[in-house]
Amino acid sequence: MAERKITVESEVGLHARPAATFVQTAAKSGMDVTIAKLGGGGQPVSAKSILSVLALDVRQGDTIVIKAEGEGADELLDQLAAIASAP
Amino acid sequence: MPAQLEGVGVSPGIGYGPAYVLTGGIPEPDGADTHDGDAEAETARAAAALERVAADLEGRGLTAGGDAQEVLTAQAMMARDPGLADRVADLVGHGKAAARAVFEAFGAYRELLAAAGGYLAERVADLDDIRDRTIAVLTGRPMPGVPTSAAEPYVLIARDLAPADTALLDRTLVAAFVTEYGGPTSHTAILARAMGVPAVVGCVGATAIIAGERLLVDGSSGLVRLSPPEAEAAAAVEAARAREAAVAAAVGPGTTKDGHAVPLLANIGGPKDLESALKYGAEGVGLYRTEFLFLDRADAPGEDEQVGQYRPVFEAFPGGRVVVRTLDAGADKPLAFLPPPGDEPNPALGVRGLRMFRIDNTAVMETQLRAIARAAEGTSAEPYVMAPMVSTAAEAAWFAQLGHRMGLANSGIMIEVPAAALRARDLAVEADFFSIGTNDLTQYTMAADRQVSGVSSLQDPWLPAVLDLIALAAAAAGEAGKGCGVCGEAAADPLLACVLVGLGVTSLSMGAPALPWVRAALAAHTYAQCQAAATTARQAVTAAEAKEGAHAHLPGIP
User: Fold this and answer.
1) In CATH, what class is B253-553?
2) C-alpha angle B372-B378-B380 in degrees, rounded to nearest 5
3) Record: contact B83-A23, CB cut-off 8 A
4) A51 contacts on B by Cβ (under 8 Å)
5) Residue B36's pLDDT band (boundaries 50, 70, 90)?
6) Which fold has domain B154-243?
7) CATH T-level assignment (fold) for domain B27-139
8) Torsion of CA B456, B506, B407, B392, to 10 degrees
């Protein structure tokens, strides 16, 4: 299981356009991908669900943990990390 | 119903038309509704309905394009959310009918988003819209929507507008939007601005308006008037049109019809106001208030910091002029790093403006002047500095000499005190230019505090006593071969602006949105007409007569 810890830099957090791009990228992969907000106390949710990702309410400066399992998991996580950490 | 409702104006402009009230229209499916036992088929039915709604939203987005497309595509993603589908399947597995399962599945996310507040709470309307559309498909009802044809443009009223509703709206069909909910970042606000349709959101009571009632909507002030007199509504719409036409038609430097140039400048409070100044065609800055830099801080800003703040303003007006007013503080707006001037029973008449720096604190003034000179270096804009609250020739001389020592060849003064206007000839010898602050000049001339509404009839710049002092100052500057601008509210009144030019004022500075109006008024009249209007105004005994007299010479200005 590959894993990344990322601080979200976008001014709008992981909402709006960044959230949509993030979920679309995860959905295309065909892998199981989860996202959790650090310090939120919540359970990891599917990174392919826009509603679950929005409901995490990840804001600028929050840290998220993303995990994926399968072939190409590292590449996928790198892609997702780039989206989430883009200012 | 009251005669008017108030909300938040989020898209400027005036709209007038009959109310069209958009009702939700999709009732909540009964909680006891169950399916006939084939959970798999029922789940497939729900999934198909969600997919149909998603495809419909996507299609609307493609047609609409732009911002609307992005919003609608995001909504389509929500309809196709795998987490949502899982919840629906689970609820159907427990016997719930598809429509009820969809309603409950959305409900869970709805609560999460609403609880987060802000941006996410405003997405609740999007979610409700997808839910209602899906339930409409499942129960065979028409999808909620707005009329796509109408005899005359209507004012669309709703609890909140969903992107799918607004995306395909025709600008020619909608006079304005009014919603009960929503804030400045709601879709209604964003799309209304993109469409150029006036909009008021957060307007409590709006959905109780009766369909067909005629409404006058002001997208700037947020006021919604119910059944206003026909003539008043027509006048408001006409004024808005005239404003748009003036903005469109009035371009280029300020000049009278016969080519007498009157530079039109902007009043600004810092670099943040530059965009608006440039948009409305300012030829420079006639009043740069620098107080914001000094307020709310323990120490005076350093020279370098000040240079950094001033420079973008000089850079924004290549070849133009930028008039910086030095720090204007007093007992009513005290600064932490300047010793308080003591307990003043009447701050308007106390140690303020230039008076604060001439005896003590001269270093603060020197630093500011040096920073202004440095900020203008290497730009092609011409730096002007002026001191507020100057009463005597000696004060004017002190400031001009200090400015010259700091390398500022144009060191002038504001004319705000009647004494300065009465003896303008003496002050014109010392100062490099005048700029008349009509607000304070009126307050001091009429002995009427600007903050006291009980004396508001004495705060009118049309009062002949004020016009006389302006004429004195402008004439003295003219005799000395120096400029005399006006940078008070008076310059923003198109009629009075023409009168000021007739009185001998050589430039006008105002809040940027007023520039097109003033530019258009000047361009429509000759210098001789302005002079005749000024003479007639000064012969009047009251402010109303002065205005009326000016009108006679300057036809066509509202």
Assistant:
1) alpha beta
2) 90
3) no
4) 78, 81, 83-84, 109, 127
5) confident
6) Glucose Oxidase; domain 1 (3.50.30)
7) Enzyme I; Chain A, domain 2 (1.10.274)
8) -50
